[in-house]
Amino acid sequence: MAVASPEQYLADLNPAQREAVLATEGPLLVIAGAGSGKTRVLTYRVAHLINAVGAKPNEILAITFTNKAAGEMKERLQRLLGRSGQGLWILTFHAACGRILRREAQRLGYRSNFTIYDQADQIRLVKQCLPSTSTTCSCSPSTCWNALPMCARSGRRRSATSSSTSTRTRTTRSTGCCNFSRRSIRT
User: Fold this and answer.
1) CATH of the domain spanning 6-108
2) CA nearest 99: which of 132, 68, 70, 142?
3) pLDDT tens, position by position, 87-135
């Protein structure tokens, strides 16, 4: 596969796009409206950095907002660069952060095969951990998560003045979670 020359891809750009592609020192943020050629500018800039400036693919991180744009950039760069583009990181913010976290997981004390949960997964997990949680709970995961330690402490604490066999009933303070507010807990 022939590698495109800078003259070929620069000819396809308007002056503002060409300026962005030729800005080779430091990071570049491209902000423009839908259909204005952002993906093309970023694609051509990466090709230019590799072809004309001599950057290595593993020295470039191209971040896009959508998986679709990342996929389009990968395909276009494969056509423009051929094999010389292998090893490029062309990802969304989330995918790039996930890849970095997996790569550095051991330094953080984690395994690299962790799962990242979105909000729906988080709510589902909290409901699985709390069998008494209503299926109609509309609390955010952080509200339920923050309520767990308080409920665990209040449900297991013994009175300092009572014997280990005696119990008393008290009402927990409201935690803001619909399933934990104002319940009687036997301690």
Assistant:
1) 3.40.50.300
2) 70
3) 899 999 999 999 999 999 999 898 999 888 888 888 777 777 765 545 5
Burial readout 42-77 (b: 16 or more C-beta within 10 A, e: otherwise): bbbbbbbbbbeeeeebeebebbbeeeebbebbbebb
Angle 179-181-183 from CA coordinates, rounded to 5°: 95
Alpha-helical segments (H) within 82-178: 93-103, 119-129, 141-156
CB contact set of 172 (below 8 Å; sequence gap of 6+)? 150, 151, 154, 180, 181, 182, 183, 185
Residue pair 84/58 in contact (Cβ under 8 Å)? The answer is no
Partners of 60 in beta bridges: none
Q: Where in the chain is the domain with CATH 3.40.50.300?
A: 6-108
Q: Record the pTM.
A: 0.59
